[in-house]
Amino acid sequence: MTPSWPVVSVAAISLLQVLGVLVGGPLLFGLMYKVRCRLEGRVGPPIRQPLLDLRKLARRERTRPEHASWIFPLAPLVLVATTLVIAVIAPLLAAGPAFGWSADLFAVVYLLLLGSVALALGALDTGTAFGGMGASRAMTIGALSEPALLVAILALSVPAHSSNVPVIIIRSLSHPLWLATPERLLALVAFLIVIVAESGRLPVDNPSTHLELTMIHEAMVLEYAGPDLALVRLGGSMRLVVLLALFADLFVPWGIATAPGAGHLAVGLVATVAKVAALGVALAAFEVAMAKLRLFRVPELLAGAFVLAVLAVVSALVMP
Amino acid sequence: MTSGLLVATTVLGLAASVVGAIAPEKTRTPLSSWLTIVACGFGFVVAVMVLKSGHVAVVHTDQLLPLSGFSLTLDRFGALFMAISAAIGACAMVFRLGYDGHGLSSRTASSVLPLFVITLLLVPAASSVTTFLFLWELMAITSLLLVLVDQRHRPEVAEAGQWYAVMTQFGAAALLVGLVLLATHSGSQSFSAIAAESAHLPAWVRSSAFVLVLVGFGSKAGMVPLHVWLPRAHPEAPGPVSALMSAAMVNLGVYGIVRVGDGLLGGGPAWWWLLVMVLGALSALFGSLHSATSTDLKRLLAYSTTDNVGLMLLGVGASGLFASTGHAALALVALVAALLHVVFHAVFKGSLFLTASSLQQATGTRDLDQLGGLLRRMPVTGSLLLVGGMALAALPPLCGFVSEWLLLQAMLHGLPSSNPSLAIAMPVGVGVLALTGGLAALTFVKAAGIGLLGQPRTEPAARASEVPRSMWLGSGILATLCLLFGVAPFLVIPAVVDAARNITGSRSTHPLTGGWQIGLSGMHGMLAPGLLALGLAMAILLVAGARRALQRGAVRRTEAWGSGRELQTARMEYTATAFGEPVTRVFEDVLRPSHDLEVSHFAESRYYVEAATFHTGLDDAFERHGYRPAASGLRWWGTLARRVPNGSVHRYLAFGLVALIVVLVVVG
Fold first, then answer.
1. pLDDT tens digits along A4-20
2. Could you tell me if A85 lies within 8 Å of chain B, comparing CB atoms?
3. Closest CB to A227 among B445, B551, B580
4. DSSP B417
């Protein structure tokens, strides 16, 4: 292991990651919508439009449904806070032992789960039929995607002997051939499916629909307005950025800063932004070509992801 | 010193029982409860002293049990379980002070309840086969009586009691045979002598004793397929009893498996532990699926007990498997993870069962579909359910997260391995753990979201008010522990590590680096739950501050919009049945729900429906396809056998003669 990093640079990295995720989330959504519009032959709003929307929402009045308790206003806070904590602890720009204390993939998964649970409770707190429907569907999909996610993590952790993200990244940088092994490719597909499911994108959930039979995430957040809605939207987009950045670090780690210093950090920042943007564009292009799956076909997709992840573990064991 | 305290604990417990039997009705509950709390306090002190010092507490008397004597030896491993029982016992008794109804204040119940608590404390101290079986049976009988206290008013209680009686006696019989087999072959009935002798026993004796004991203890722990009594008996028992059963009694099943498997037999071949792992995985999956789809709050918690016992067995099995394949350090980590889960599960499940009983007392029902809106009407009880439920869902920063994380780490480090059984068991174990984790989160959202949030669905729920202080205090202590252990797990980890080393005799170095970070020494893997909690709290405050700064004017209470509905009534809310429906549908092959739709039409035309009734049910598949056929087979055999003794004296004399001849032939 390399010697520990100076505190200043660790703090700088964390700050940069938090700011990057905060601003990058809405911009990524803007970029993805732009790509979608262009592919459909439309001009589309500017990329910064989601940021403008957030500003507009933040100025509006806050409301609370008459039967709701304190859970309803707390839920958006927890959603954003969990993602912020992940942005602090996860090595998105730099992989150093300084992040060892908690940069554990299992911890990241459970923090994401905490955010989802908070949102689902907030939805049920409204006492409307839509809130319950969205919560039930979202929790079911969440429960089914978790095995695939954790087993895919296991497949990545086995050769590195750790579920610690920096350890995995450093190992894959020093063994570049390892990135092309079958277990990596299988785990990659499983991971992608889970990211799509967790962030509520097509073909699992359609973020732009408000058709009652099909909506999942949107049904949960129908009652939010003003600053609360802004937080929910911000949280959702931040989650996608965090997930894509983690994905990029785990599967295409080149460019990530492995030593302290402004130069390394600048390279890491540029590389991560470029990778996340590229992944976002690819995801948006994929979405244009996809139709939403029927709700009860989604478990089959997730079961497929689970099988791929198990195969990844098995092949990691057979071909060390 | 410790021995004296152990005697004092027992005497106080017996005194509480006597007081419960003779005191007048008014003072009966407080007197016997307080005496039991003091007894639990003494028991807790003994347990902590033994855990700290490692000196065993020994009590032996020849007066109590004829021929064999009554012997207690409390070592560190037993002390861990005694401490759990004592803590749960004390909190349940505090809860009981404010709990009314359900027949728990009757003379019989008041004298049996302290006895039950004391057996829970003493079973882990028993150090000979006779003492153990005596205490075990006493525990079974007292708990059975306590389940049955309300049977005059509700017929389902009697049915639950029957199931429990049959299963616990079946388990006890298996246990008796298994332990006696060990005792006869090793020539002594004391646990230490068996442990010293067991390595020289023939393999078939060891293996059959282990399997029998696994069946016996598994039935008490609610392991699939011996779990059928649990989701009936635990919910029907009065509040404090259900907490004691689910948080303290099931632990003793796990205790027994480890005590016999690792302690008396000193570990065994890989297939023993693979069997434990398979049964654990089955229990975890089956339990979590049923708790995700149940609508009865206490039944849901009972199935979640089966789920969590499965996770503990997964850890115990993994530990044995590691030990049998020569990974001593990992074996210790896995056992520590399992025992940590025992402690944490006891804390959160005890709290949850007590809270659920509070809700039941306030609303008169356990059916989630009839609750709702209770967080605003019962703020303390509601918050307690949220805390316990988050621990159950293994969410940070609560205690359930720490033990599941450690279990995942243990399984992760079992790979890569050249051993094929490990290579298959560990990924499947992780998959099971992950799926049950996800389903537990869904269960929590359902229980808390449907039960506490939204609008009240019925009149009693709308009129509910906060329960007496002692009730929320009882579950509140345990809920506080959930949070405390989740943030600062180092408060319990050293004790658990000591207990695990004590039972396995492991010499391997301290497997976990302590302090605010938990790390696996010699392996990568670290978690700082305290810092994580601090970070979360700070982030929430930060975001809340930002929202506050942006906010203009007060928050306006509005009618729920609901996509433009004109009216929102409680009947339009999602129910618990509907909430669990997607899970039921996805796992239809496992759960096998029954649907029954009856439609009657008007005579004039088939196109007009007069009435439609729909009935859907979710029985336990093991019960329907395994136990019910077995029970009817037995009944058939019973009717057949009843024809043989027809009352004729000649026939009975002939039976006697035949029996005598058989005995002479066999003996001669």
1. 677 777 788 888 899 99
2. yes
3. B551
4. -
Number of domains in chain B: 2
User: DSSP letter string over A3-64?
Assistant: PPPPHHHHHHHHHHHHHHHHHHHHHHHHHHHHHHHHHTT-----TTHHHHHHHHHHTS--EE
Number of domain units in chain A: 1
State the ipTM, two decimals: 0.93
Neighbours of A297 (CB within 10 A): 11
**Average pLDDT of span A223-232:** 92
- Alpha-carbon gap, residue A132 to B659, rounded angstroms: 67
Q: What sign has the CA pseudo-torsion A167, A173, A178, A179? A: positive
Whether residue A44 lies within 8 A of chain B, CB to CB, comes out as no
Q: Do residues B542 and A77 lie in contact, with contact meaning Cβ atoms separated by under 8 Å? A: no
> Is pLDDT at A2 greater than 50 in this prediction?
no
Instruction: Tell me which of A270-274, B7-11, B610-614 is least confident.
Output: B610-614
Q: Which of B71, B78, B70 is nearest to B50 (CA)?
A: B78
Answer yes or no: do B547 and A231 touch at CB < 8 A. yes
Res B614: pLDDT: 83
Tens digits of residue pLDDT in B156-211: 899 999 999 999 999 999 999 999 999 999 988 899 999 998 888 999 999 999 99
B113 part of a folded domain: no
**Among the listed residues A218, A278, A217, the one whose alpha carbon sits nearest the alpha carbon of residue A247:** A278
- Distance between CA atoms of residues B75 and B83, nearest Å: 12
- Residue B609, SS3 per DSSP: strand
- Owning domain of residue A173: 7-318
Give yes or no for A119 touching B (CB within 8 A). Answer: no
Phi-psi region of B269 (alpha: psi -120 to 50; beta: other; left: phi over 0): beta
- Determine contact, residues B532/A40, Cβ cutoff 8 Å: no
- Chain A, 164 to 223: residues with Cβ < 8 Å from chain B are 164, 167, 210, 212, 222-223
Asked whether residue B529 is assigned to any structural domain, the reply reads no
Q: Pick the residue from chain B with its C-alpha nearest to A127.
A: B454
> How far is CA A90 from each of CA A80, A164, A246, B515, B661, rounded to the nearest angstrom?
15, 10, 8, 22, 79
User: In 3-state terms, what secondary structure has residue B611?
Assistant: strand
Q: Rounded to whole angstroms, how far apart are CA atoms B489 and B557?
A: 41
Q: Of A47-61, B109-123, B589-603, where does mean pLDDT reach its minimum?
A: B589-603
Provide the pLDDT for residue B443: 95
Point out the least confidently predicted range of A202-211, B242-251, B504-513, B609-618. B504-513
Q: Which domain holds residue B373?
A: 270-510
Find tokens 């949280």 and name the residue. Answer: A235
> Which own/partner pairs from A29-35 qualify as long-range (CB within 8 Å, at least 24 positions apart)?
A29/A237, A29/A240, A31/A277, A31/A280, A31/A281, A31/A284, A32/A280, A32/A281, A32/A283, A32/A284, A32/A287, A33/A284, A35/A280, A35/A281, A35/A284, A35/A285, A35/A288
A190 located within any domain: yes
Cα(A87)–Cα(A22) distance, integer angstroms: 9
Mean pLDDT computed over every residue of chain B: 89
Please tell me whether the peptide bond between B225 and the residue prior to it is cis, using omega within 30 degrees of 0.
yes
Q: Is B50 within the bounds of a domain?
A: no
Residues of B within 8 A of A124 (CB-CB) are: 445, 449-450, 453-454, 574
Measure the CA–CA gap between B170 and B653, rounded to whole angstroms.
31
| Candidate from B439, B453, B579 with C-beta closest to A69 | B453
- Report the relative pairing of strands B556-558 and A63-65 from DSSP bridges: parallel
B534: chain A residues, CB-CB within 8 Å: none
- Which value, to the nearest 10 degrees, does the dihedral of the CA atoms of residues B256, B260, B261, B262 take? 100
- Which one of A100, A113, A317 has the shortest CB-CB distance to B423? A317
Nearest-CA distance from A75 to chain B in Å? 10
pLDDT of residue B243: 95
Residues B319 and B463 in one domain: yes
Nearest one of B113, B97, B76, B393 to B244, comparing CA atoms: B113
